[in-house]
Amino acid sequence: VAVEAADPAVWSVLRERYSGFAGAGSAGMIVEIRVCEPEEAGEFLDVPAADFRAAAPVRSRSAGGAGPADAALERRRLSRPVVRELAGGVLMRRKDFAAFLEPRVGRARLAVRPRMLAIGVDSFLRICFSFVALEVHGLLLHAAGLVRNGRAYLFFGPSGTGKTTIARVSAEQARVLSDEMILIRRIASGYHAYGTPFFGDDNLRKAESGGQPLAAAFVPVKDTRVSLVRSRRGPALAKLLSACLFFGTTREAHAALMARANDVLDVVPCYDLHFRKDPGFWSEVDALPSAEGQP
Q1: Does residue 141 contact residue 126 with C-beta atoms inside 8 Å?
Q2: Which tens digit of pLDDT belongs to each residue from 114-129?
Q3: pTM for the predicted model, two decimal places
């Protein structure tokens, strides 16, 4: 992803958060960023005024006495942008940004609220990478990725299952690609895993972007014992799809996502990993064969 911006504040954010991932070469998407109030960005995004108004995020009014669970659901809903499919592109609006993506031509325009610049840019770049990933035969996943003995391992599943815990307890046993977002991409007969600048725990943040062969994938299960059990295909596919960062709205995009997720499970062995909060599970992982080159 390449960025175009006139505001120095944008470049300050980019240097601070992503300098370790900067590089030369062609970009799958070019993003033009403007710092302004999202409500005033319709002309910059060059979308019909009626569509821009229709995509405005609306905060629901909860009845009095709503509990913590209701508040958590509301925060989760508001963290996802309102998405509208328009001719030639996708319009997105959230409280901190408004954007128009043209995936087929590889361009996007982003208007981000000044006081929420860092989080708005970070969130939208994740969205951009999710579109680009599918175009290059890959997926952007809410997952932890670690490299040990030249092999990459993927840990995916719902929040709270232990992805960041695994990354933390493995600090001396493996290199952490990320505890939050991992890009996987089909390379020849297998998949490679790549680090991203998107982390959940900033103490784990490093510039580890290089691809490594993906040997296995795991669904973490917190337990008092350590064991590996080959995952059943249906539940593994459901968890993998749930872990995908995906904002496509067309039937073709959903079909491409499903095909890619199935291909991952065809090629990469997947296990339910029962683990304790220590690195003892690595002895079980080390005994697994490499997945690279599997039919």
Answers
A1: no
A2: 999 999 999 999 998 8
A3: 0.85
